[in-house]
Each structure stands twice: as structure tokens, then as C-alpha cells.
Design goal:
This protein has 5 helices and no strands. The protein has helices at residues 11-22, 51-58, 71-81, 86-100, 104-119. The relative contact order is 0.10.
């Protein structure tokens, strides 16, 4: 075993991050992402949800909100729901491009539109959409 550092409901991560940020370095590296087997994942998951990404976001100079962190998973679920639907596929690819470009309000509006559409009933499949 490599040993274990207790999570303490996220306090260990938050305190370590605060200590690193106080060090005055221009860069702080988070040396893990999805190491679930080691118990060091900060990627969103069932056990802790967005705990660690939210902690990073609160201390970040980035202009994104905590709710912005949930847009990629919403986009993913919409892509699954609308698989084979040409109009939705094009729109959701645009939403993805907007997210990558940092155009969050526009991406959010597109995602919300298709979430509302999805809640109205099953997607209509359209032939001709590449897998």
C-alpha cells in the first residue's frame, strides 16, 4: 500500500490547495484527475459529485461558474438522447464548439433549448447522421 490520507469530506483537498496557492508559485499542478483506484480522483463521480472541481473553481481566476462545470455532462446526455437526429446533432456540435471557445452563455442557451425539447417527448430519428 502507498498509505492513505483521509478525505475528511473534502477538507484535505481544500487545505492542500490553499497551501499550494499561498506558496506564491505562478502555477499549481494537480497531479491527479481520474485515479479512482488510488482514491485520488478529482473528476466528477457518483461518490463525491463535483466536490473537487467546485473547490478548484471557487479558487480559480477563471470566469466560469460552478454550474458551467455541469454543461459538458448535460451535452453528453443530450447527444445520447438525440442520437440520429440531424438537427439536434448539428446544434449540439455547435454547443460543443461554443463551450470550447468559452462562449458559455450561448452554449448554455443551446443546451437549455434542447433539454426543453427532450422533455417534450422522444427524439425523432433522422437517417443520414454519421455515427
Amino acid at each position: 500500500s502507498y498509505g492513505r490520507i483521509e478525505d475528511r469530506d473534502g477538507a484535505t483537498f481544500t487545505e492542500s490547495l490553499e497551501q499550494a496557492l499561498k506558496g506564491g508559485s505562478g502555477l499549481v499542478q494537480i497531479a491527479t484527475w481520474n485515479d479512482y483506484g488510488e482514491g485520488t480522483a478529482i473528476e466528477p463521480g457518483r461518490r463525491y459529485g463535483y466536490r473537487y472541481l467546485d473547490a478548484l473553481q471557487l479558487r480559480s481566476a477563471a470566469r466560469f461558474s460552478s454550474s458551467d462545470l455541469r454543461l459538458p455532462i448535460q451535452l453528453y446526455h443530450l447527444r445520447k438522447h438525440f442520437k440520429g437526429h440531424l438537427e439536434a446533432s448539428v446544434a449540439l456540435t455547435r454547443a460543443s464548439d461554443l463551450l470550447l471557445a468559452g462562449e458559455i452563455p450561448e452554449a448554455r442557451a443551446c443546451i437549455q433549448h434542447w433539454q426543453a425539447t427532450a422533455s417534450q417527448g422522444p427524439a425523432v430519428e433522422t437517417k443520414g447522421v454519421a455515427e
